[in-house]
Design brief:
The chain has helices spanning about 105-110, 115, 135-150, 165-175, 200-210, 295-305, 325-335, 355-365, 375-385, 390-395, and strands at about 10-15, 15-25, 35-40, 45, 55, 75-80, 90, 95-100, 120-125, 155-160, 175, 180-185, 215-220, 230-235, 235-240, 250, 255-260, 265, 275-280, 285-290, 310-315, 335-340, 365. It is of the alpha/beta class. It has an eight-stranded mixed sheet with strand order 9-6-10-12-13-14-17-18, with helices on both faces. Strands 4-3-2-1-5 form a five-stranded antiparallel sheet, with no helix packed on it. α4 packs parallel to α9 (about 375-385), α7 packs parallel to α8 and α9 (about 375-385) packs antiparallel against α10. The mean pLDDT is about 90. Bound molecules: aspartic acid (ASP). The site of aspartic acid (ASP) has 10 residues, from loops.
Length: about 400
């Protein structure tokens, strides 16, 4: 083993067959002298020393292809603003390690065909998993988009998938006017896996960034096969599956379009505005509360303590146990804005059907129609920071960015 180093391209013969690939670092969990190689198809194989019949260096594979980015006259410019997550990483086939994509070249390494679509300006604002995102990150992304908008025709934001819908909603509200598309994109499987969705998602996102769209959207696989992506409105989209490639859905709504070879819009959408207006303040004193049977009153009390607003995910049409009503009434009297959404996710809240609903409505709880709870949470943060308190209540029920729809879609 001594004469081999991590990153060497090797051939291993065992009685199970011949494996060729890159020698990876020894796994931390193993005390044996197991060797692991990353094969050309992206899979790793581990071999214990007793099984090795022959181990030799094979013809070495290129560490990374050199791709030079040249500016091409006549092509639009698309800015890619990296934030982290699986999509923003590439695999160094020399060591098998996953690295963040930091430059235009790195993105092109994942999707070389991008150069046919646009001149790429690439930058990275941070490199984090999206579960670590906070409202301050949404603001940083928004400000970077504003800067880039002066130099490009469209924006693509690679982002972790876990909380991408929160960021999409935050950006949707923060940009009151957009002179270019803002496209969030992620991937469920990293680009070193043969089943990765990174390639199709990224190239589709760049195609959408070239259209006349003036909205914030999310572009992700539309089906589990590798043929098309859906364009979801930023205030309608939700991750609905932990691992499927088509995990993202437009809820209580439909995607606004689709990308295969070409981009096709099949619903109304906002066109590019002439100018850009960004209102990037957010009031972080808002809670998102999932009500559950048996929730102690003190838990609700604590979650409302010191807050300016709260969005409750109630049961069914929008309920919490009736013993909570006096507490909510008191908080609303003291100036807190409290909205009701549903943990059903699909459908619309209605506080007129059951007595609890009617009591909640009387207490001043705002029924938030068919708005997604996360979207309502972000919207309330944004309204509280940018509007007079007396306007917040009615604006919560007004459709500002497609977050409330009157039409019902069957599901
Ligand atoms: N946990 C990761 C994230 O949201 C998953 C992903 O990138 O898809 O950043």
């Amino acid at each position: 083993m001594q004469e081999f180093q991590e990153g060497d391209y090797v051939e291993v013969k065992t009685k199970k067959g011949v494996f060729r690939g890159v020698l990876l670092p020894k796994p931390k969990f193993s005390d044996d002298d197991i060797i692991v190689i990353k094969m050309d198809n992206g899979y790793n194989v581990g071999v214990v020393p007793e099984e090795i019949r022959l181990l030799r260096r094979a013809e070495k594979r290129e560490a990374r292809r050199e791709i030079k980015v040249k500016f091409r006259e006549g092509l639009p410019t698309v800015s890619i603003i990296g934030t982290g997550g699986t999509i923003a990483s590439y695999v160094d086939y020399r060591t098998g390690a996953v690295h963040p994509a930091l430059s235009a070249e790195d993105f092109l390494f994942t999707v070389p065909e991008i150069v046919e679509e646009a001149n790429i300006r690439a930058s990275v604002v941070f490199n984090i998993l999206s579960e670590d995102m906070k409202p301050e990150h949404w603001i940083t992304i928004a400000r970077k988009i504003k800067d880039e908008a002066e130099k490009s025709d469209g924006i693509v934001v690679p982002h972790g998938t876990d909380t991408m819908s929160y960021t999409a909603a935050a950006l949707s509200f923060m940009f009151e006017k957009l002179p270019l598309p803002v496209v969030l994109v992620g991937s469920q499987r990293s680009s070193d896996r043969p089943s990765s969705d990174a390639y199709l998602n990224l190239i589709s996102a760049v195609k959408v960034a070239k259209t006349d769209l003036g909205e914030v959207v999310v572009v992700m696989h539309a089906s589990s096969s590798d043929d098309r992506c859906a364009i979801h409105r930023g205030t309608r989209v939700r991750k609905m599956h932990t691992s499927r490639r088509d995990a993202f859905e437009s809820v209580n709504s439909m995607p606004i379009g689709e990308v295969s070879d070409k981009v096709r819009f099949f619903r109304e959408y906002r066109r590019r505005d002439d100018d850009l207006v960004l209102r990037d303040r957010l009031d972080e004193k808002v809670s998102l509360i999932y009500y559950y049977p048996g929730m102690p009153l003190e838990v609700m009390e604590r979650m409302l303590e010191g807050m300016h607003g709260a969005v409750i995910m109630g049961t069914g049409l929008g309920h919490v146990a009736s013993e909570f009503v006096p507490l909510l009434r008191e908080k609303i009297r003291d100036g807190m804005v409290i909205g009701m959404t549903t943990q059903c996710i699909y459908g619309r809240v209605n506080l007129n059907v059951y007595s609890t609903g009617r009591e909640l409505k009387h207490a001043g709880v705002i029924p938030l129609e068919d708005m997604l709870p996360e979207v309502a949470y972000v919207k309330l943060m944004w309204l509280l920071a940018n509007y007079e308190p007396e306007d917040v209540t009615h604006l919560m029920r007004e459709n500002l960015r497609g977050e409330i729809e009157k039409r019902r879609f069957l599901k």
